[in-house]
Amino acid sequence: MEKQYTFILAGNPNCGKSTVFNELTGSRQYVGNWPGVTVETKEGFVKNSNIRLIDLPGTYSLSPSSIEQKLARDYIKSGTADAVINIVDATNLERNLFLTTQLLELNVPVVVALNMMDVVDKQGENINTEVLESYLGIPFVPISANKSNNLDLLMEKAIEVSKIGNKMTNCAVCKKPCKTSSQRYNLASEATRAAYKKSNSGKKNMTDEIDKLLLNKYLAIPIFLLIMFSVFSITFGGFASGISDFIRGFFDESITNAFRFLLNSVNAQSWIVMLVTDGIIKGIGAILSFLPQIVILFFLLALLEDSGYMVRAAFILDKVMRPFGLGGKAFIPMVIGFGCTVPAIMATRTLENKKERLITVLIAPFMSCSARLPIYILFTGVFFKQYQQVVIFSIYILGMMVAVLSGFIFSKTLSKGDNTNFLLEIPPYRMPTLKNILLHVWERVWDFVERAATIIFIASIIVWFCGAFTFMLKPATAENSIISIIGKIIAPIFAPLGFGDWRASAAVLTGVAAKEMVVATLSIIGGDISQIFTRASAISFMVFTLLYVSCIATIATIKSELKSVKMAIFATFYQVFAAWIVSFIVYNILRWVGI
What we know:
61% helix, 28 helices, two-stranded antiparallel sheet, Rossmann fold, single chain, 6% strand, 8 strands, 6-stranded mixed β-sheet, alpha/beta
């Protein structure tokens, strides 16, 4: 029987490990041009082989301070793998080789993959792999993962070193054991100087030239705001709105009529017809009609991430966030929160400082996830059609402001300790790849559709049932249904916020399961929002749905990541409290100015 090999992919954040993993295994793991994209271990088999690959979180050192770095160190030291494939960013060789020296000290079989060699060649520079091998005594394989160059050779070398081990006789690490960080850096620096031949062409570095503008002391933040506003302007422009209107009409008329005809033709009972047409189709159709805007938003955000701009946004915002108890690195999980709060909370594992991680976990739910987007589109489409982009952009900015302000409160009350220095790798700008962009969009869209097919499907049935029957399980009217009675009980809580109608209250309640259910609920119970809300209360409602509990999955993730039921309960109550206070303030200000 042919031997099965297990290889570990280890390397610095943003060195290309995930790209190597995707190319070799065909996995759909997302690759981003910023540190910390991989926040948990990924496993898969190399296509058409018996080689198992394990993609570890990126780490700069084997003396880690974050949860993810500890995970990487422990797995490498466990000895469960046949060899370690050390992915090294060839454009940042000296810094990356520091980890290589530590790997060698563990006496594990190692092969180095010099990634991004296409970039090195394009810059007219050269890396002599033979010189590096003479310094470190291990194989160096030049690769370009995004083009699949030399990946087969890399696997061959990995199998070879797993069988015979590394030939350490010529290794500088063995001749001069490096017991301190400075000694390891000196060795990495010495090897780099000997092997790396820089170009003397005098060409200007594109990244440096672009950063002179985008990281300008005075222009950086205005440019960031302009870029983000442009994203929202494109997302909610006429093209996407037209497609959404078509999908909504398709579900409301064609799909509904087709199912009604089909069910009536088989003499289905009337309650079954109503369940399918007025419950399931209305609920799911109301959600899927907003899919075009979600696709466009994710596409544009993926472009910014893949190009390397988003990590610069974290750098830009560090000075803004630092006085509030947060570093720029916390911005990375916050941006991930634009997609989904659950992976955003998981991404906080890359934060080394326990205080900063705790605070970021607690404020991440204030970032507006994609599940809230249908709510904004629905309400702005009715009340602020001409200013839709401005209103939605303002809602997103408000979420960030509440998050930062909450971080300041938590830094002064909940958690004690000093902030860490801000250390974040700034990658070079890269041309986004269509494959990677589409992969990212597909994953996010599929998650959205999957939720519609599972959680929203089940919840829509429950909402329809509660709207169609009384507590005595008899056919109900709008005034005595289960959902109306529950809505009327909690409605006084929201009356000071401008939306004391039972239908609005019921939608808020079902939104705890999943935010998409807010729109689905209003659609199923027949809530004409133009009759339920005013312009001021519509904004107040959007603000409340922005800030209160994201979903049950978020609460469970907070409990899991912080290993504390108490903190999960605290986070839930704080989010509801913050949502109520901010909505109350916004509503009354809008009424005062006459909106």
